[in-house]
Amino acid sequence: MKIRTITTGVSLQSPQEISKIKQVAQFNQQAKIFFEQQGYEVQTTRIATNPWEEYLPISTTEAIQEIQALEILCHSLNISFFNIGYASRPETIALIPEINKNTSSIFCSSKIGDMETGLNFQNAWESAKVIKRIAQETENGYGNFRFCAWANCLPGIPFFPTAYHLGNTSFSLGLELADLVTQAFSQFPDIEVVEEKLQLLLEIELQKIEAIAQQISAKFAIEYNGIDTSLAPSLDKSNSIAFAYEQLLHGKFGSPGTLTISGMLTRVLKNVSVKICGYSGLMLPVCEDVGLATRANEQTYDITNLLLYSAVCGCGLDTVPLPGEISIDQIAAILIDIATLAIKLNKPLSARLFPIPNKKAGEMTTFNSPYLVDCKIFAID
Fold first, then answer.
1. Which of 87, 124, 205, 284 could anchor a disulfide with 93, C-beta 3.0 to 4.6 Å?
2. Domain assignment of residue 119, yes or no
3. Would you say residue 89 lies in a domain?
4. Helix (H, G, I), strand (E, B), or coil: what is residue 64?
5. Per-residue pLDDT tens over the stretch 251-298
């Protein structure tokens, strides 16, 4: 088990609050060292802010200048992941391609619905335009790695690009737990038995993590927001979530039974007796898991299957490669489906979609990224 991220949230009233950002960056490094001294690998530390509409000018030129200044500060502080939160209005969502094009380590998102206000069709449409434009303006469409659209997501999610913050400074943890799932599934290849055994295994390991987090909180007087128990993906083939499924399935990932295992995993992840936050569900990011990419290449599942699994599991559609010719209408329809599920089921869901310029369904992606694995582009029927 690894700690994928220590994400600290901070509320800004102005982008010039440099001392506040420096304090948070320093805390992240101290927390990282604290965990490492206890024997845990910490892959990344991250900072998320309140929605940027609250502290940045809305004029395009001024906003870009302020965000670029923030990124320069981040680089000077060795911060590789900085999230400026979400945009909630069509006119600010429309600025996101410019933000993306003029930065390299700034993440953000758009809000397309919640339980209180329902589905926002205009925001979904504008977000679809953003996804399409970012794909066209960045090499291999990779800029969409730093953007997603979401519905019904609360503050405190440690995973990017969805992360945003409200209130007092606090930190949360995102973990990489696929190795524990693989261990449990290989030892107890029976779904009726493995649920209980996995629950016990996670209880033991996550309580250790939480005890350390509480010590850090007390030592540095920073509120501990909880653990997002979601199964963050691994590029390690031996710990692929898709291959773990196949310990229980009578077939490959996507075969009948995949939905049942997804539901079981989500029950376990939501019922561990530690303080949880964020999605705390199953992630199935196509291009971040070797097994998921392999089975996508074999077409054992498709985007409709992923939408179905989202009804019982984690974060929605994540790192899904799509044909470059996909229309804005088609992207908007996918986003509206995700938002409809999120609102109907009262759960957090997001969509991080990768239209690949000049490539068609069935062709391979050619990402040049340490965070992504290549796979065949999904068909949109």
1. 87
2. no
3. yes
4. helix
5. 999 999 999 999 999 999 999 999 999 999 888 899 999 999 999 999
Beta strand extents in the chain (DSSP E only): 2-10, 42-49, 82-87, 106-111, 113-114, 118-119, 147-151, 170-176, 223-228, 316-323, 349-356
Residue segments in the chain with a per-residue pLDDT below the cut of 70: 235
Which of these, 48, 46, 57, lies nearest to 11 by C-alpha position?
A: 48
**Residue 345 covered by a domain:** no
For residue 377, CA distances in Å to 10, 108, 133, 263, 326 come to 37, 24, 18, 26, 11
SS3 of residue 339 by DSSP: helix
CATH of the domain at 281: 3.20.70.20
Please give the DSSP secondary-structure letter assigned to residue 53.
Answer: G
Let me know if residue 373 belongs to a domain.
Answer: no
Largest Cα–Cα distance in the chain? 58
What pLDDT is stored for residue 281 in this prediction? 84
The 10 Å Cβ neighbour count of residue 189 is 13
Domain enclosing residue 244, as ranges: 1-109+144-315
